[in-house]
Design goal:
Blueprint lengths: L17 H24 L3 H29 L5 H25 L5 H29 L2 H14 L3
Bound molecules: fe (ii) ion (2 copies).
Length: 156
């Protein structure tokens, strides 16, 4: 499947600045989570567009974290920061499992609410705790390398 950027303003501007890009992605994911809840009340094309966003930009975002950001942090961080990264990875897995349930057709309001609530809570931790760890341990060369990988991932 070809993955393209859809579902909001192209993140090109922030791709040069990975921390800002992570935060910008979080704001867009929050918008889509709100749309997802609303789309449940009035089913139609909207829900397909929201799914398309999570299948493309949502996947890129998690890959940015798990493949470009976390591996650079791991050799440098403290034990408590390692625990944070492990816990964020576990949250990715549980969010992906909840999303897979929805994508497979379970559209109960309860399942959607659980996904939305968990994703919001995850983002809130990353906005504060992960961003602080990134600011503490990543230098300009790391950020440039992460930026290059983010662009490659998106075919830019
Ligand atoms: Fe994450
Ligand atoms: Fe994130």
């Amino acid at each position: 499947m070809e993955i393209v950027n859809i579902g909001g303003p192209a993140p090109k501007n922030t791709l040069d600045a990975p921390i800002e890009h992570v935060l910008a992605c979080h704001r867009r994911i929050e918008q889509k989570l709100d749309l997802l809840l609303r789309a449940m009340e009035t089913p139609g094309d909207e829900i397909a567009r929201v799914f398309q966003f999570f299948d493309t930009n949502g996947v890129f975002h998690t890959q940015d974290e798990e493949e470009s950001i976390f591996p650079r942090l791991r050799p440098r961080v403290s034990a408590s920061e390692t625990a944070l990264l492990d816990s964020l990875c576990a949250e990715h897995e549980s969010i992906e499992a909840l999303y897979a349930r929805l994508a497979a057709g379970d559209r109960s309001l309860e399942s959607v609410r659980e996904l939305v609530d968990r994703y919001h809570a995850h983002i809130a931790r990353e906005d504060t705790e992960l961003v602080a760890v990134m600011q503490r341990h990543l230098d300009d060369a790391d950020l440039r390398a992460i930026s290059r990988e983010m662009k490659q991932r998106r075919g830019i």
